[in-house]
Every structure is written in C-alpha cells, then in structure tokens.
Amino acid sequence: MTNDRGSWGSRPGFILAATGSAVGLGNIWGFPTQVGQGGGAAFVLIYLIAVIFICAPILLGEVLVGRYAQLGPAGAVRRISPSGPWWVIGLLAVAAGTFILSFYAVIAGWTVQYLWLAVTDGLAADAEGSGALFGAVSANPIRNVLFTGLFLVATAWCVNRGIRRGIEAASRLMMPLLFVLLLILAIRSVTLPGAAEGLAYYLRPDLSQALNPEIIGAAVGQAFFSLSLGMGALITYGSYLHRSHAVRSASIAIVGIDTTIALLAGFIIFPAGFSIASFSSGSTFDPTAGGPGLIFAVLPQLFATLPGGLLFGAAFFLLLSVAAFTSTISLLEVPVAHAIDQWRWPRSKAVLAVAAFTFAFSIPSVLSFSGGFFSELPAVGGTFFDLMVNVWNEGALPLGGMLISLFIGWRWGARFAGDELRRDGPGFPSPALWGFLIRFVSPAAIFLLIVSRFVL
Ligand code: TRP
Question: For ligand 1, is residue 233 a contact (CB within 6 Å)?
Fold first, then answer.
C-alpha cells in the first residue's frame, strides 16, 4: 500500500494542501457566526489566545508525528505505541472526519446555491432583505439534499482520483484570488458609513464576557476546527512529507494564513452588518439573530453597495465553494486513508463506503432547517445540526487534540519528539519551548476547559 500513499513533490505543495484544508467554511462562515453567537470581541480575544498557546503547538506536533511515522493517525499511533489505550486517537479521527463532513457538506451546498443565485441575479432579491433569502434556501429539503449530495459526489470523485494534481493546481490559483477578494470586501465594509459600531463590536472586548466557560469552549472548539486539528488530518498530510522537509516554518505559515483569513471575514461581516442595518432600515443589527444564516444575510446586502456587486457576489461564492472543497477533501481523506491503510480496502471501495454513509447522515442536518423533528430535537432543545456542531467541534476535536498532545508529549516523549523537531535545524519554536507547550500548556488548558464545562 505504500505505493498508493504518494508524497508531496515539494514543501510548498504541502503548505498549499494543508492551508487548503485549514481555510474553508470554518473561517468565512463559521468564525463570524461564532463571534456573533459569542458576544463579539471577547470571543475574538479568546480565539487568538487559543490559536497561539493551545493549537499552534498541536498543529506542529501533528505534522511532526505524521512526518516521522509516514502513516495516518491510527498507524502512526500504533507505530509509536504498539499497545496501550492510544488507539482511541485513530478511532476518534475516523469518526470526526466522517461526521464533520456530513454537516460541512450541507453548508457547502448552500454556498453553491448562492453561487447559482449570484449568477442568475437571484441575490438582488435579498439586497435589502434581512435573511429572507437564506430562510428560503435553507428550508428547502429536496434541493439541499441534492446540493449536499452533489458536493459529496464531487469530493468523492476527487479523493478517488488521487488529489494532487487537480486540487493543488486549483488551490494555487484560487487561494490568492480568494484572499484578494476578501481584502477588497473588507476595505469596502470598514469604509461604509456607520461601520465604526461594527468595528467596536468586533474589536473592543467586554472582559466580563471573556470568562464565560461557554464562550471559551466555543472559541477553543472553533480554533481547532478552523485549523483542521484534533482528528489527525495534519498527521495524514504530514505523512506525505519527505522526512527531509522542514515543518516549523510551514506550520507557522498555515496558522498565520488561516487566522488572517478568519479575521478578515470578521472585518467584512460586522462593519457591513451594523452599517447597512442603520442606513437601510433604521434598526440596529443583531449579530446573534442570524445564526448560521449570518453571512448569507449580510453579504448580499454588501455586494449591493458595490458597483458590479453581483459579479463580486458570484466570484465570492465561487471561491468560497472552492475553499470548502479543499476542506471536504481533507475530511474525506482521513477515514478513506484509514480504510486503505488499516483494513486494506481498495481506495475506490473506501471512498464509496464513507461517502455513502456520510450522505445518509447528512440528511438530518439538512432537515434541521426545514422545520419538524430535526429542527427541534426534544432531548437537546436545538437542531440536529447544532447538536452535531457541539459534539464534534466543541467536544471531539478538543478532546482529540488533548489526547494527541499527551501522546506526543508523554508517550512519544519530549526527547524523541524534540529530536524529530531538531532535524529542521535551529529555529522558532525551539524544541524546549515547544516541548513545554505540548506537554503542559495545551493539555492542561483543554483539560480545565472540559472540567469547567461539563463537570462544574
Ligand atoms: N478547517 C476547515 C475549515 O475551517 C474544516 C476542516 C477540514 C476540518 N478538515 C478538517 C476541521 C479536519 C477539523 C478537522 O473550514
């Protein structure tokens, strides 16, 4: 099977693919949505702290383990620790990849429908509306099952084909374009009249909010999700690296780009939301109200303020769909690689089985938005979709990240892990600093978080 595994041709190829995995709906849809739910700037502050002190060390660790073992999460764990309870990391990885994909593909389906609407002039209908269009789009079960299914078929097709050529080429072109477009939109947004209120909401933290365990939990979960951490996606991608490829600067680049794009998305949504609400309807903007529809409600209004706005809209949703696509590929690749490596399945069988299961499981997430049973689950008092986000983003990924950091810091051990890092030569972070973060800071922070949320 080692022939099937392949490897990145170059370090930039790896950086590109890993950045493609990290940058996605989590940055542009998820981050502003979570900031809105989490009360604004306090959430942003905790998010940044989580990225730097908890997540960045784990990201470097995942890539190092993958490069060292040249295997995906389950295989890498077994290689370093043939016995013991660490195999749960592999189990968690397969489950998280599959289930996150099942609801991620639903949102990806919305972005494709918005692309279609932008091209056919349908976005103009919502230029001054307040999310009516999003309500109509998300509540149509048949159409959403269809678009979710289409997105999964496209992902499966690509993963089945072997991902390197198509995806690398597409991301190389699309990622810089996405960045430029986001920058233009952010500049437009912050220069709208009344944008200051949005900037204050986004940048001036209310510190009494910052100590709320709910918000801390959501921010840490969002940081893991956005960086594709906690389920071995980066172990898998790291395993395709040549052992001579340095990973330190690559990891810093991935974290930096991903965080910059999430922050940019906030600079687009909040100033625009506050500004447009104040001059179009005289009402105030409530960032919590939109829920998952926040960006879908605000963006069409922002496009309408730009000359040639619908063209911007079309370009934006095209690039967002591509960003989502490079992420769904990495989500599907983890369980597929597992079935190939551990169960010796042919790639096509693995792709078909995982994609079919994921599709079936995506249906209750679709139905979460059209009223009825799944939009008001009796036991949880929320939608099935919310339940999935809570369990996987806020639960499984931080838990997986904690186990991975304990595994690296204590089972693999600071000395061996440090030796692997030393292969890169001197640089930042030093093995001593990184070892300290991954042995103590990351796992302790996550542990305290879990205790404060579920036990206290
Ligand atoms: N990071 C991606 C985003 O922000 C989503 C994603 C892709 C992901 N692969 C992952 C999340 C692996 C967790 C684990 O949109």
Answer: yes
For ligand 1, whether the C-beta of 431 sits within 6 Å is no
**Could you tell me which residues come within 8 angstroms of residue 186 by beta carbon, excluding any fewer than 6 positions away?**
264, 267, 268
Which residue lies with its CA nearest to atom 10 of ligand 1? 228
CA distance 22 to 327: 7
Q: Which amino acid is at 381?
A: G
Rounded distance between C-alpha atoms, residue 272 and residue 165, angstroms: 38
Local mean pLDDT, 10-residue blocks, the chain (456 residues):
59 87 95 94 96 97 96 94 93 96 98 93 68 88 98 93 69 83 93 94 87 88 96 93 91 97 96 84 78 88 82 89 93 92 91 98 96 88 92 93 97 94 94 96 93 76
By most ligand atoms within 8 Å of CB, the mutation choice from 59, 330, 399 for ligand 1 is 330
pTM, two decimals, is: 0.94
**Tokens read off for 115:** 């692309």
Residue 443 confidence (pLDDT): 97
Q: Is 226 in the pocket of ligand 1 (CB under 6 A)?
A: yes
Q: Comparing C-alpha atoms, which of 163, 240, 238, 233 is closest to residue 6?
A: 240
Cα–Cα distance measured from residue 338 to residue 370, given in angstroms and rounded to the nearest whole number = 35
Q: Is the CB of 122 under 6 A from ligand 1?
A: no
Burial class (CB in 10 A: 0-12, 13-18, 19+), 390: middle
DSSP-derived secondary structure for 301-338: HHHHTSTTHHHHHHHHHHHHHHHHHHHHHHHHHHHHHH
Backbone angles phi, psi at 121, to 5 degrees: 75, 10
Would you state the structure tokens that stand for residue 147, as one six-digit string?
Answer: 């678009």
Q: What's the CA gap between 281 and 286, in Å, rounded? A: 13
- Give CA–CA dist 25/2, Å, rounded: 32
